[in-house]
Amino acid sequence: MSEWSFVEIARVFERKQGTAAVELALESRELADGWMAYGGQGSYVNKSCGFGFDQPVTEAQLDELEAFFASRGVEPKVELSPFAPPALLESLGRRGFVLREFVNVLYRPLRPGEDLRKLPHGWPEGVRIEQVDPTDEAAVLEFVEVSSSGFMPEGEPLSPVFLDLGIRSVRHPGTTAYVARVGKEAAGAGSCESSGGLTSLFGTSVKPAFRRRGIQQALIAARLARGQEQGSTLAIIASGPGIPTERNATRLGFAMAYSRVALAKPGQGLVPSP
């Protein structure tokens, strides 16, 4: 393991997730040692996160959390690490929050000089990884369409909310986005962000026709190399339990750090958020 403890990984990564949500949101508010963010109905940044580490969360703040989301027509949503205080979980339970999702957070040390292109089954034949130019509108749109494809039913068009968030994410100064090409076709895509010695990998999809060729592993390797260049000592990737992202990350040296939970409070007329 790296010199990072699991609670340190959680504190830094959850706050990184929170600041990213705030930067992409239309509206946001501080909440204890974290934030609440709203990016429009159907937005994946509709959540409260990054708190539960260094400050207690009061009942008045939980009232504020519920009002912030409900007044905007979406379900109040909370993301918590396993290091959150039991009293906070008890308060949320009494208020009617229910479990919506588990996300596994995996970590991998990054070492100077490590050859990150050495994949378990070799580099996938005919695949090249290209960095996306955030000033190239066509390249940005292509990236957003490909990187979002795995998060919605095949053939379904991107909603305006997802499209806008994707474009703003690629153009964020801290983001580096990559497209994997087979010939001239974009077969997969993914992003990363490096700061504070930690590189986060996110937003990865591979088109169905190109799966099982090692393309996702190649995209992971390219982003690990980017983190290495940026001087990071740790890489993080968040994944649904048991899906290909988790399996590919494990094959490339990632290990489990902790599981995050998403809790939401259903209500009449309130729209769930992804």
From TrEMBL:
MF annotations from Gene Ontology: acyltransferase activity, transferring groups other than amino-acyl groups
Coiled-coil regions listed in the entry: none
Gene3D superfamilies linked to this entry: 3.40.630.30
PROSITE patterns for this protein: GNAT
Domain N-acetyltransferase: 127-274
Highest taxon in the source lineage: Bacteria
Name of the protein described by the UniProt record: N-acetyltransferase domain-containing protein
Organism of provenance: Stigmatella aurantiaca
